[in-house]
Amino acid sequence: MTSTLASAKGNTPEPAGPRGLPLLGNLPALARDPLGFFCHLRDTYGDWVPWAMGPKPCLFVSRPEDVNELLGGVETTFSPSELGWAFRHVLGDGVVTSTGDDWRRKRALVQPSVRPRQVRSYATTMVECADAAASRWQDGQRVDVQQEMTALTQRVAVRTLFGVETAGREETIARAMAVAQQEIGAELRGATIFLPPWVPTPGRRRLRSAVAELDAEIARIIAEHHAAEAAGEERDDLLSRLLAARDEAGAPLSDRELRDESITLYIGGHETTSTTLTWAWHLLAGSPEARARLDAELTEVLDGGRLPGFDDYARLPFTQAIVKESLRLYPPIWLITAVARAGATLGGRPVPEGTTVWSSQWSVHRDPRLFPEPDVFRPERWDPDAPTPVPDHAWFPFGGGPRTCLGTRFALVEAALVLATLAQRWRVETDPGEVKPFTGLTLQPARPIGATLRALPQPRRAPETPETSRAPEQA
Asked: I need a surface site. Which of 43, 230, 283, 448 has the fewest CB within 10 A?
């Protein structure tokens, strides 16, 4: 691999990459510790590292400018790479996994449903669900933080996406997605990613069963929406917007396409947000200074203890900074891959056709050259007047370029509003100790994060006024 890259560039030698095993290449090292593997490549070999995943030639890049060019070049000089049978089996042929004209058509159909004006309409649901959760908590109660945040964001996702709220449906979808999380991560870390789809491994059997259950539940919901549409009933959920969408030829999304896009939006709007909030509470518990500054901002902005609204999102810059810093340290989407087409380059350097180019948000976000004290939780690094501004293209938890995550705005607004709603009433004291991440579909805590809930003194909640409840027409 190294000699191939060197000859493609001419007389300039490429830096050496790690030595691999016959047939397996560097797969064993990747499987043992994916996050550590990519940081090792960065620290040992630099920002441009050839390596091998089994028989496949690979290139690892970590310079932000190269990553930005890679993200911007997908669909032109690079093609989205396959992330294994498990990933495809869960997401289907949705906007994340489709390519070319099919991807362009689906993106045009899905994107209007998650534009800022539409996200505004879902803000009330986000806050209502968070307020209901806060009202159920009790002073001194012991909780599993991830379970609490998962249940909350599942409720938001089911209500905003499907327009329904039943405990049974939430549990069915959550159970299936938990299996998907586990099996996608296992395939990415192991040799099964090279096996043909028809090989019946135990993990694949578990995943097939879970996806069948998930598909049956979503099919029932889609059928209910079709019936409501036929009866002239108007609904304002995301699925109804997808049902009404038409492409340039006037064709709607098929039921299978509706299923695939629903799963994609569910993961984007729930998985990433619950994970981000889980890590945020753990990080806040270890930073009294950050928690004090958050309390001061909430007291000032949400005067009288009122619930936040969509317009408050822009008025809560430190709350946003906590979310951004949590996403920097623990990016839910931790890996980006693409395959070089003929003539592909990065930073002016040729990349041989067929090479899989890898980058990791984890390794870039924790690069000491880009972020001073990279392993330290410092929300103030996001202040507009911070002495060391965050470098351009160095933070990309939702990807970038034309294939950036469509649910980015939804996830950022939800995380900030939910955090604000809960934090003005509760202090979440997580148990001390290191919590390592698990590399699945998203970057989850490898063990439960236990916490004790402490109620905060509450002022009399101010009634809503037109200024606090009405949302002006702006993004």
From this structure: 230
Residue 223 domain-assigned (yes or no): no
Q: What burial class does residue 178 get, using C-beta atoms within 10 Å of its C-beta: 0-12 exposed, 13-18 middle, 19+ buried?
A: middle
Give the model's pLDDT for residue 149: 95
Phi-psi region of 10 (alpha: psi -120 to 50; beta: other; left: phi over 0): left
Where b means 16+ CB within 10 Å and e means fewer, 401-426 reads bebebbbbbbbbbbbbbbbbbbbbbb
Q: Pairing relation of β-strands 443-445 and 437-439?
A: antiparallel
**Cα–Cα distance between 153 and 415 in angstroms, integer?**
9
pLDDT of residue 263: 84
Binding annotation for heme? 405
Task: Find the domain containing 22 and state its range.
Answer: 1-91+334-396
What is the model's pLDDT at position 192?
Answer: 66
Per-residue pLDDT at 475:
35
- What pLDDT, on the 0 to 100 scale, is given for residue 6? 39
Q: Is 278 among the domain residues?
A: no
Cα–Cα nearest to 297, from 381, 379, 376: 379
CA distance 153 to 433: 25
List Cα–Cα distances, 279 to 66, 205, 273, 449, in angstroms. 28, 31, 10, 9
Low-confidence ranges of the chain (pLDDT < 70): 1-15, 83, 164-170, 188-194, 460-475
In a domain, 378, yes or no: yes
pLDDT of residue 10: 42
Confidence at residue 361, expressed as pLDDT on a 0 to 100 scale: 97
The model's pTM is 0.87
- pLDDT, residue 78, reads 93
How confident is the model at residue 15, as a pLDDT? 58
In a domain, 373, yes or no: yes
The pair of structure tokens assigned to 410 is 């939804």
Binding residues: 405
Q: How far apart are CA 270 and CA 154, in angstroms?
A: 6
Extended strands (E) in 323-475: 336-340, 345-346, 349-350, 356-359, 426-430, 437-439, 443-445, 450-455
User: CATH number of the domain that 362 lies in?
Assistant: 1.10.630.10
Helix residue spans in 21-144 (DSSP H):
27-32, 34-45, 64-73, 85-91, 100-110, 116-136
